[in-house]
C-alpha cells in the first residue's frame, strides 16, 4: 500500500474507530477530516482499502473498521509516536525515582504503565548478574527433618525444611551428590536439572526442595497489572475475554510475548491479532520494548487490537527509558 492518499484515509479510519468505537463511513470521514477530496473519491479509496484487506464491513454496517492487516500497515507506515506531556514525564520520573528497592520500582512501573495506557501492563524483572550455587549444606533437625541451606556466589542464603527420614550416612551421600551436580550452576536453572542417578535413594524430596529454591532465582519473573482494563474493554472482543485472561496467567506465554516478538529499528515490537503466537490472543495486540542493560529485560502492554497505537507506543517507550536510566545509575 504505497498510495499516500489511501494511507491518509486508512489513518483517518483507524483513528476514528479507535476513539469512537464505531464503524466509520465515508460521510463521517469527510465531515471530520480535511482530506481535500470529494466524497466519491473517499468512497473509491475505501473500496480499494477493503479490496486490499485493510478494512472490512462488520456485519451489515454501512461503515468500515480496520482489519489486523490494516492496523499493521497503520503501525508500520503511518503511526507517529506522540510525545509525552511535561506533566506525564515529571510524574513518571517522580514516581520511579522515589522507589526504595527493586521490588517497589517494578511494582510501581507495572501500575504506572497500566494507568498511563489504560491497558494490561507486563513488566519483566531486570536481569542481574548470574547467581550461581556455591555450596549446599544439609543440617539434621530431627530424625525426620532436614534443613537444606543453599549459599550462592553472591552470598545469598536460601533455606528450606525437608521432611524425610535419614541417617548420617545418607546425609553425607546426599550432600555429596547435590554439590557435585549443582555447584557452579545458575540458580534459576536448577528447575531444569535432573538428578543423577535419577533413582538415587531418598533424593526425591531433597531435589524437589532444591528446584523450589531455584525458582526463587528465576530472572524471568513478571509482574502483571491492570487486568480490570481488559474487562472494561470486553466489547472489543467478539469472543469471551476469558482466553485472554487465562493467557495472562501463564508466565511462559507472557515472556514469549515480551521477548519473542521481533523489534523494529526504533526498538519496540508490535504484534497484532493473528500475528500473536497464542490463539487465545488472536483478538489482542501486544506492544513491547526492551529496557535496562543491553535491553535484556522487557516491558509492554496487552489490549484489544482497537487501541491507540501511537499513544501506547510513546508511553511504553517512556517508562522503559526512565527505568533504564534509573538502573544505569544504581
**Uncertain residue ranges:** none
The chain-level mean pLDDT equals 87
Give the N-terminus to C-terminus distance in angstroms: 46 Å
Return Rg in Å.
26 Å
Structural class: alpha+beta
* Neighbour order of strands in the largest sheet: 7-3-10-9-8
For the largest beta-sheet, the strand count, sense and barrel status come to:
5 strands, antiparallel
User: Which outline best applies?
Assistant: elongated
Order of helices and strands: HHHEEHHHEEEEHHEHHHEEEH
* Strand residues, percent: 15-25%
Approximately how much helix is present in the residues? 40-55%
Please give the count of helices: 12
- Count of beta strands: 10
List keywords for this structure.
330 residues, single chain, five-stranded antiparallel sheet, alpha+beta, three-stranded antiparallel sheet, elongated, 12 helices
Amino acid at each position: 500500500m504505497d498510495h499516500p492518499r489511501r494511507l491518509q484515509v486508512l489513518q483517518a479510519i483507524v483513528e476514528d474507530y479507535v476513539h469512537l468505537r464505531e464503524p466509520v463511513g465515508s460521510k463521517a470521514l469527510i465531515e471530520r477530516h480535511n482530506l481535500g477530496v470529494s466524497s466519491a473519491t473517499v468512497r473509491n479509496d475505501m473500496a480499494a482499502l477493503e479490496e486490499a484487506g485493510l478494512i472490512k464491513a462488520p456485519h451489515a454496517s454501512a461503515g468500515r473498521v480496520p482489519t489486523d492487516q490494516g492496523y499493521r500497515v497503520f503501525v508500520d507506515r503511518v503511526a507517529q509516536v506522540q510525545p509525552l506531556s511535561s506533566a506525564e514525564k515529571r510524574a513518571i520520573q517522580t514516581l520511579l525515582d522515589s522507589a526504595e528497592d527493586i521490588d517497589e520500582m517494578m511494582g510501581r512501573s507495572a501500575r504506572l504503565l497500566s494507568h498511563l495506557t489504560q491497558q494490561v501492563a507486563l513488566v519483566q524483572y531486570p536481569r542481574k548478574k548470574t547467581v550461581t550455587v556455591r555450596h549446599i549444606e544439609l543440617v539434621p533437625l530431627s530424625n525426620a527433618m532436614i534443613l537444606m541451606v543453599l549459599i550462592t556466589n553472591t552470598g545469598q542464603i536460601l533455606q528450606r525444611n525437608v521432611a524425610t527420614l535419614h541417617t548420617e550416612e545418607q546425609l553425607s551421600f546426599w550432600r555429596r551428590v547435590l554439590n557435585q551436580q549443582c555447584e557452579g550452576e545458575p540458580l534459576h536453572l536448577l528447575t531444569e536439572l535432573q538428578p543423577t542417578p535419577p533413582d538415587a535413594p531418598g533424593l526425591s524430596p531433597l531435589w524437589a526442595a532444591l528446584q523450589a529454591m531455584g525458582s526463587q532465582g528465576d530472572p524471568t519473573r513478571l509482574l502483571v497489572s491492570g487486568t480490570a482494563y481488559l474487562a472494561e474493554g470486553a466489547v472489543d472482543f467478539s469472543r469471551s475475554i476469558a482466553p485472554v485472561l487465562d493467557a495472562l496467567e501463564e508466565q511462559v506465554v507472557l515472556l514469549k510475548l515480551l521477548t519473542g516478538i521481533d523489534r523494529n529499528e526504533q526498538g519496540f515490537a508490535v504484534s497484532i491479532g493473528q500475528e500473536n503466537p497464542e490463539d487465545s490472543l488472536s483478538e489482542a495486540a501486544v506492544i513491547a520494548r526492551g529496557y535496562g542493560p543491553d535491553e535484556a529485560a522487557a516491558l509492554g502492554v496487552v489490549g484489544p487490537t482497537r487501541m491507540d497505537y501511537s499513544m501506547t507506543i510513546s508511553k511504553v517507550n517512556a517508562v522503559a527509558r526512565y527505568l533504564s536510566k534509573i538502573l544505569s545509575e544504581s
